[in-house]
Amino acid sequence: MLYSLFASLVESYSFLNIFKYLTVRTGLAMFTSFFVVFFIGTPFINFFKSKKIHDPIRNDGPSEHIIKKIGTPTMGGLLILTGLFSGIFLWCDLLNPYIWFLIFVVGSFGILGACDDYKKIKNNNSTGISFKIKLLIQILLSLLAILFLTFYTESPEINNLYFPFFKNLVVNLGLFYIPFYMFIIVGASNAVNLTDGLDGLATVPVILVASCFAFISYVTGNIVFSEYLHITYIEGVGEISIFCGSIIGACLGFLWFNAPPAKIFMGDTGSLSLGGSLGAVSIITKHEIVLAITGGLFVLEAISVIVQVVSFKLTGKRVFMMAPIHHHFEKKGWAESTVVIRFWIISIILAMIGLATLKLR
Is the model's pTM score more than 0.90? Predict the structure, then answer.
């Protein structure tokens, strides 16, 4: 909104031309989303506390969780989305179809997550919407998003899959790009959801991945930088850096309240929407494999659950003491803060490796 207003006044007030720069608007979006979350966070949490909107704690989890976390408000994803949309609608170019693709993904997955959280709160258990139904809805939403991307963007690269570390290794997916992209969005959404089990554990890795893709989208949308780095130039993708900046700001603001000991949990409202949006951003920028690297912690958490389930069904034995894997280390005696900080360190290393792929080609 503000971007459109300032853009229309540039001819009369030349100093407003500064708002055409992606770097400026990315910074403004980040600060806007941060301050929105920061200033409404306390009254938001107090309201949810008064209404007893809190997530039931798993009885089979670490015993400390039952004692320390019970009664902590959930659905903090609403707080994140409020800040995120503030940054998007104020500073993004709303004529860019990539932005609306991302708005649809983050909004629809956020609504699904909110419904899941609401059902958990209403029924006072940790089940929520059944996994099969939730997965089906995620598949349908991702399909609608991919169809929108196909029909309302003009990128000739939509069918291509690019491999990091190689200059010219490209695979044309043909129509297989539709189920592949659906897998990326749904997989990323659920992977972040599985990671969100300890105070601040998912928030910082999301910030790191969003920071990486803010840079990636900027250089992908810049013909000079993309040529220098030997990556595919895609017109209009630079605008996605502002979306990523909004994610960073909203999550930083949320981390103020989510840092151990958490005053509020993001719930499925936040984790499903943030994960889905990161998957969508990787698709637009054509760095899907880089997402698996920078978001390697999310991949590890998801794999640990898959391995646990498959092992138990086939052999009746569990590989981990508890899945996802962060609970395994808690069961082994690691303090929650130790698990969180060490996993943050892993995320930082993976983010650096992911960025290194841009130059090592």
Answer: yes
